[in-house]
Amino acid sequence: QVQLVESGGGLVQAGGSLRLSCAASGRPFSTYAMGWFRQAPGKEREFVGGISRSDSSTYYADSVKGRFTISRDNAKNMAYLHMNSVKPEDTANYFCAASITWDYSTIYYNRREYEYWGQGTQVTVSS
Fold it and tell me: What is the mean pLDDT of each run of 10 residues along the chain (127 residues)?
């Protein structure tokens, strides 16, 4: 079992920055790839970005590419979503997710590939 807890959400002005954190526990953190998703009211949960278990690869949705960065610290069992130049359309509940994998370099963008999810943290961007 893997437990994930997000933190760092809040209210931020457009153009500002925010860092979301995801604390993991339950099994060795380096054994799973991580992803970030978001869900706005009335919309489906969408992929934001992902990072491989080895920290060697990242992949982002076009909507956040160049503005958001994902990192992880396997020694601290933490994953991060660094959000820069935020826009009102980034307003959503943000979730981190874990996918147990033997592959060191694969990133998963399909939410069905992730077995474990956090409870989410709300990000609101004001214009």
Answer: 96 98 93 96 96 90 98 95 98 97 91 97 97
